[in-house]
Amino acid sequence: MFEKILIANRGEIALRVIRTCKEMGIKTVAIYSKADAESLHVRFADEAVCIGPASSAESYLSIPKIMAAVEITNADAIHPGYGFLAENAEFAEICNEYGVKFIGPSAHMIRMMGDKITAKDTMVKANVPVIPGSDGLLTNTKDALKLAEEIGYPIILKATAGGGGKGMRVVWEADKLEEEWEKARTEAKASFANDGIYMEKFIEEPRHIEFQIVGDQYGTVVHLSERDCSIQRRHQKLVEECPSPFMTQALRKKMGEAAVNAGKAIDYEGVGTVEFLVDKYKNFYFMEMNTRIQVEHPVTEEVIDHDLIKEQIKVAAGEKVSGKDYFPKMHAIECRINAEDPYNDFRPNPGKITSFHSAKGQGVRVDTHVYAGYSVPPYYDSMIAKLICKAQTREECIKKMKRALDEFIVEGIRTTVPFHRQLMDNEDFVKGNFNTGFLNNFELKELE
Questions:
Q1: 132-201: what fold?
Q2: Could you confirm whether 10 is annotated as catalytic?
């Protein structure tokens, strides 16, 4: 087992990893930018190293600075968390060259799944259903128009190096394709320094359902059931739950087998998720694989009572997967609490938190790195907390979440708490009648 792990991340996920390491008797190193000097992950790590100014490029994305921190602290492993360098194959490669264990898959596995075209080809060979689309990158609008006619509109253009909804455009008719093509390429180039574009059939009224998988160094891959991530805006998830209200036992069995096959196709090591789009007829299609721990991993942890970070570290240390395919017997829901103004198109709202009271009680969990007096910096992702509730049934879980949201007090900045509270009262959400376009018609009411 590792003696000291450096967490190459910040905020709540860094604190989350520190907690598990402490329980496992492993020493921890926090890295931080000058903007994060007062964050709780800095306070609770055994050691902390400032690696630069607020800019991510000069701190959390600086591989040389992170490796320097590894050297001066003698850490023997690096946990990348999510975001930043978590799916950076070069980083994983450099860790390997330095003799430091990257807690995650190999650089080869990351590359296999990081490029959308390569990932799709790999899934086809593994007999995992994929969305009809281009066999590779499209190089001109003439070929794009021809393929779109064959597939049938609507289609979606996607950046091959994409993520977070960047470089994506839905095209409903032929005379709009050229215009949207240029927009997608321009945005992809600006966001990822790669303007490669491919095309897929656009699945209408889809559910976004992902399967949590774990693979060890000995070829074993298991799934830990699904999470429904369909409540999202601009392709950013806001609410996740397990089990999906759309799921049946037969569909879970088929999708679980497909997720395991996806992992085995690349000899996957570590925790990860296989993400699918599921249409209203319960046909499912591979979308992408995330080769890291997910923001929403607590949802799975709560329904299976299992520490996924611990499992991740144990697998990285060469231990065998301790679990088996899992089918949920409880229900859990996670609400992402963001420093955003839901009444102003969810505009980021950084600033000083003057008062903070997190929800408590049986079946309620809060993962956060903030507190009263903490200043939310404007430089990073706006998520400040995750509120997770679990209960025996979905109905009970929603009621518990309502109560917890009423207790969750953040003053000094605007947050997404009012949005989540109103969502829990929405009749269609309560009935489980939603898809990825649900929030397009959701009206937020001003509180009295």
A1: Dna Ligase; domain 1 (3.30.1490)
A2: no
